[in-house]
Amino acid sequence: MIIMSAQLQNIDSLIFDMDGTLWDATMSYAEVWNAACARFGKKTSITGGDLTHLMGMSIPHILDCLLGDDVPVSSDVFLETLSALEAEMMPTLGGILFPGVKQGLETLAGHFRLFMLSNCSAMGLVNFTAFTGTRHLFEGLLSQGERPVSKSENLRYMIDRYKLRNPIYVGDTQADCEQAHSAGVPFAFAAYGFGNCSNPDVQVCSFMELVHKLIPS
After folding, report:
1. Which helix (H) or strand (E) holds 132?
2. Which are the contacts of 114, defined by CB distance < 8 A and separation ≥ 6?
3. In the CATH hierarchy, which top-level class contains the domain 5-24+97-214?
4. Residue ranges per domain, the chain?
5. What is the rounded CA–CA span in Å between residue 202 and residue 188?
6. What is the value of pTM for the model shown?
7. CA dist., res. 172 & res. 193, Å (int)
8. In angstroms, rounded to a whole number, what is the distance separating the alpha carbons of residues 83 and 79?
9. Which residues lie closer than 8 Å to 167 by C-beta, 6 or more apart?
10. pLDDT in tens, 10-61
């Protein structure tokens, strides 16, 4: 189903995924993962490409996919170290915004309430907004690291907390779509991102296409 223009005009708020939707920070994340492994004497060569198809999954699941039973310490200890290193390294490493994101967010903020919701670590969204200088554009941020439940549950929580009436979730994977629909929220698929989606409510091939669909000239 594709949302028609009339329905899009009723949208009052946008909730954005981060990785694969607003920026690509996979190379930086790979540095963090390799640093965490090195901290425990394990030499790895994790690359940005290794992480691309894992973006949007929970951090524990990514750990399982990357290292499986070869985690050098307990999973809890490793993830605590990974989180600390991410908080230390990502403010400097950052990522690369997709074309049109900075300008597009500034334009959208003049018409809609903007939020971010991701399955990243507790500091992930804070680091993103600090690195990109976009914190003032978002009314609220929520990560799975802060509230470790499913994305659909966090979507419902955000909707209730901020009293959103007609939000739309913008992401780049099938899982994002399923979680949005589970929460009763329409889904806009960023086809320029990392994943695929078979049943979005609307699909865009660039960030500025999303802006133009929501704010017709």
Report:
1. helix 124-132
2. 13, 14, 16, 105, 108, 137, 138, 139
3. alpha beta
4. 5-24+97-214, 26-93
5. 5
6. 0.91
7. 5
8. 6
9. 11, 12, 13, 14, 15, 115, 159, 185
10. 899 999 999 999 999 999 999 999 999 999 999 999 999 999 989 878 889 9
